[in-house]
Amino acid sequence: MGDKPLDPLDALLNAALNSYADAEPLNGLEERVLNRASRARPRMRLRYGSLVAIAASLGLSCFFAYFTLQKTATEPKRADVRVARVEPPTPARIPLPPPRQERVRHRRSVQRLPKREMFPTPQPPSAEERALLRFVERDPKEAAEAFASLQRQMDAPLEIPPLEIKPLQTNEVNN
User: Fold this and answer.
1) Percent of the chain whose pLDDT exceeds 70
2) pLDDT tens figures, 67-82
3) pLDDT tier for residue 151 given thresholds of 50, 70 and 90
4) Which long-range contacts link 53-62 to residues 24+ away (Cβ below 8 Å)?
5) N or C of the chain: less Cβ packing under 10 Å?
6) What Cα–Cα distance (Å) separates residue 89 from each residue in 1, 86, 93, 95, 156?
């Protein structure tokens, strides 16, 4: 390393690593490694040998296929060449299908619902609506003030009170 003094952490790490370097291998480790290596060699020879045999058979089959195809492609074909006189075909009359008759579809008469003058159709007022109408007719100033206060409440910002969660109480059980 350098001339610099080591930090306490570096010194501790170096001491730990040196103790690992001094450790001896377990008994029989060399024998196990050698036994495994000696068993692996015949397998590898068998694999490589079968690969070489497959490659050689593929090469030979391609070689023979190339020459047989080349030989048949270069030889002229012997064929009996006869000159035949061919007369043009006479146009035959093909019977045409009968003309299609169009079907007349009868439309079903659909009864349409009567069209209303106003949509949606007005309904008679409910009991609550009738009570509101009576209130407005009886005291219009108080109704106007009630509606104005409701409008102010609707326009005011929404205020949510702070959420308070009490801590849970647990019964301590001694084990």
Assistant:
1) 77
2) 777 766 555 556 556 6
3) very high
4) none
5) C
6) 104, 9, 12, 18, 98
